[in-house]
């Protein structure tokens, strides 16, 4: 039965774990993952959360799942997992600065010159048309009404995401990977929104498998206003999160028995924040904070409604949701398009997911056990274990083999000095 199992402070599972679910299964469970959007910050959080899951759950291979669903920034991560890229490899590709071949932040910030040029060329024609409209009937059509025609010359996006698509096409064309949905051994669905109909489209589903994976990611992550719509087969597509936050039903329709969901954006609860804030009330922070809170509240409430529907529509599936704690000020006050602090935020996501697993072990252990997965409590109980351990030591960690405290301290010091050096260099 579906269990929308959430982070601390959320409601408990929809029903208890029945005896027949906690025993051995007659067949191998079909397992999937669904990743929501949230801009670059969302992708950063998801990589950190997946690193924690891979490190803390025995019997779970994130690169050997049956179904992957990605929306917006989650499409980058879902496509990477489906293509055999581990969470550690994606950390080095998308998070670590200075790594050869890494996805550089400036790829997302290249001006959409083609869009600007196309709109600029249309200005003379539109201006002439507006003038004719006004002069033909100046009494009934005011000047401002006629000039509304010029709104068609406003660019539909500021940045060009084609460079990102080129990078991903090269990444997925490497040996052992593919940019073709049909050549994957698993099912991959990347959700975008058809701009002209408002309908959600799952690239990778029947009828859309011919679209390159890299192109589908461009469409799924084309946030209106920032990126122009992506044209595919004559239709225009924008961010897949416009209709649904998570699109978990896409995986559940494939008969998934266990679905792991990661949602990086939640409304902020300032009253429960664990550290002093820069503002006493969110409205004191001005329009950006008000809009950020409103945006998060809308997408989260929409996701909550969807999770409740899944309980009725998919009674035989287990759905486990991971998301930040609502009192996490670091995740809220970080810019949704921030790159400067991505390593620190990824480490925070890693720690938060570990804490969630630790707090919910009694609840999650029987659910995971029904699908052949065991929680590594020895790792969760190791307070000194951090994200660097998950990156460098994939083997099970026995209590008698824990690294000396000095080595962990040395790594932390090197990490801090590295960031201090970059800060000083940027200041200069």
Q: Which residues sit in consecutive blocks of at least 5 with pLDDT less than 50?
A: 6-26, 393-424
β-strand percent reads 5-15%
Shape: globular
* Helix fraction by DSSP (H/I, runs of at least 4): 40-55%
* Spatial gap, N to C terminus: 58 Å
| Rg of Cα set | 23 Å
Give a quick set of tags describing it.
10% strand; alpha/beta; 43% helix; 16 helices; two-stranded antiparallel sheet; globular; 428 residues
Q: Any overview of this molecule?
A:
- The longest helix is centred in the last third of the chain and has 27 residues, at about 285-315.
- β4 and β5 form a beta hairpin.
- This protein has about 425 residues and is α/β, with parallel strands linked by helices.
- The chain has 16 helices and ten strands.
- The strands form two sheets. Strands 1, 3, 4, 5, 6, 7, 8 and 9 form an eight-stranded mixed β-sheet that branches. The chain has a two-stranded antiparallel ribbon with strand order 2-10.
- About 45% of the residues lie in helices and about 10% in strands.
- The chain is globular.
- The chain has helices at about 20, 40-55, 75-80, 85-95, 115-135, 145, 160-170, 215-220, 250, 285-315, 330-335, 340-360, 360-370, 375-380, 385-390, 405-425, and strands at about 30-35, 55-60, 65-70, 185-195, 200-205, 230, 235-240, 260, 320, 375.
């Amino acid at each position: 039965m579906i269990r929308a199992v959430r982070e601390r402070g959320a409601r408990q599972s929809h029903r208890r774990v029945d005896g027949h679910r906690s025993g051995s299964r007659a067949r191998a469970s079909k397992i999937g993952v669904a990743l929501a959007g949230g801009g670059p910050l969302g992708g950063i959080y998801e990589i950190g959360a997946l690193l924690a899951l891979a490190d803390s759950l025995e019997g779970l291979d994130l690169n050997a799942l049956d179904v992957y669903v990605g929306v917006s920034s989650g499409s980058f991560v879902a496509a990477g997992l489906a293509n055999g890229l581990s969470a550690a490899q994606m950390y080095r590709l998308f998070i670590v600065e200075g790594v050869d071949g890494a996805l550089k932040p400036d790829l997302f910030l290249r001006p959409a010159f083609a869009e600007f040029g196309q709109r600029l060329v249309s200005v003379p024609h539109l201006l002439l048309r507006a003038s004719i409209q006004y002069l033909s009937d100046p009494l009934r059509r005011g000047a401002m009404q006629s000039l509304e025609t010029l709104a068609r010359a406003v660019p539909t996006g500021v940045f060009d995401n084609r460079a990102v698509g080129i990078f991903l096409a090269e990444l997925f064309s490497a040996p052992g990977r593919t940019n073709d949905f049909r050549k994957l051994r698993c099912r991959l669905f990347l959700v975008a929104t058809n701009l002209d109909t408002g309908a959600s489209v799952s690239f990778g589903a029947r009828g859309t498998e011919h679209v390159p994976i890299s192109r589908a990611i461009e469409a799924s992550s084309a946030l209106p206003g920032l990126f122009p719509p992506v044209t595919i087969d004559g239709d225009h597509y924008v961010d897949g999160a416009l209709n649904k936050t998570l699109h978990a039903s896409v995986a559940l329709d494939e008969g998934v028995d266990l679905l792991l969901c990661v949602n990086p954006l939640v409304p902020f609860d300032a009253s429960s924040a664990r550290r002093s804030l820069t503002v006493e009330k969110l409205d004191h922070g001005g329009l950006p904070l008000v809009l950020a809170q409103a945006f998060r509240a809308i997408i989260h409430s929409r996701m909550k409604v969807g999770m409740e529907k899944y309980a009725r529509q998919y009674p035989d599936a287990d759905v486990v949701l991971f998301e930040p704690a609502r009192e996490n000020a670091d995740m809220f006050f970080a810019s949704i398009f921030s790159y400067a602090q991505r390593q620190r935020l990824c480490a925070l996501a890693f720690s938060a997911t570990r804490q969630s697993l630790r707090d919910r072990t009694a609840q999650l252990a029987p659910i995971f056990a029904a699908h052949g997965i065991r929680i590594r409590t020895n790792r969760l109980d190791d307070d000194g274990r951090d994200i660097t351990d998950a990156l460098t030591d994939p083997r099970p960690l026995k209590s008698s083999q824990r690294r000396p405290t000095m080595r962990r301290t040395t790594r932390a010091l090197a990490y801090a000095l590295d960031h201090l050096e970059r800060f000083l260099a940027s200041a200069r």
